[in-house]
Amino acid sequence: MERIPTTNLFSLNGKTAIVTGATQPLAAEMSLTMAEAGANIIALISPWDPDDADLKSSIHAVGREIRIWKADVGDTPSLRACFKEIWKAVVTPDILLNFSTINRRGPVEEMMDEDIDVIFAVNLKGAYIAAQEFGLRLIALNRPGKIINFASMTAHLPMTNVSAYAAAKAGVVQMTRALSNEWAPRDIQVNCISPGYTKTSMTSSLLAEDPGMESYITSRTPAGRWGVPEDYRGVILFLSSQASDFVTGTTVVVDGGMMVR
């Protein structure tokens, strides 16, 4: 095997990354990181996601291209149709960041069917369908590639009021292992990131409901702080680049050490 110079090991020049839920703060930061490393971005954005102007501006500012597609990740026909349109547009894929996520908090006894259904539809089934569509395209083109799924610390560490979300994200971890087992021989690496408590719009509502969570999380985290989106730049660059060509089926926990305390 030819040795890749260290200066090129994390380069994504000439690559195309497909990102689901791309306007969500973590996904937007990781999209920008991949663009800074040379990748063009294909953003899949749900119809109810925030405006994409900031995302477009940040990607263009580093000299890379971004194209937007709208799709409801929790609706299988919509998601499959979106991927068909992407392939019709002659997009050659290299990286999938499978990020789209949603949560509905509440005690087990109060979780309603509609909440449970949307949590599993977006977080688990949507992630599976996106990975399947992406992998099928790579196989058809006989290309290597990277799939990076997004789970949660709650997939590993029991928490309260997130039972459906935790179950769905635990499924993402196991899905990652299963897909990597089948696709490693095709040179498709499938890995996962499990974030800890990170300051985003998703956790701002949690802090609004319970102001005591700020100090609770800080005190429970060995690093002594919450995460921020920029904390994920290194791990996404590693998992999307040639640096991780022999890494597959792995979940990287980014939580400031909370899970081991």
UniProtKB/TrEMBL annotation:
UniProt KW keywords: NADP, Oxidoreductase
Xref: PROSITE patterns: ADH_SHORT
Pfam families: adh_short_C2 (PF13561)
Gene3D superfamilies registered for this protein in UniProt: NAD(P)-binding Rossmann-like Domain
PANTHER family with a match to the protein in the record: 2-DEHYDRO-3-DEOXY-D-GLUCONATE 5-DEHYDROGENASE, SHORT-CHAIN DEHYDROGENASES/REDUCTASES FAMILY MEMBER
Sequence similarity: Belongs to the short-chain dehydrogenases/reductases (SDR) family.
Name assigned to this protein: 2-deoxy-D-gluconate 3-dehydrogenase
Organism: Aspergillus cavernicola
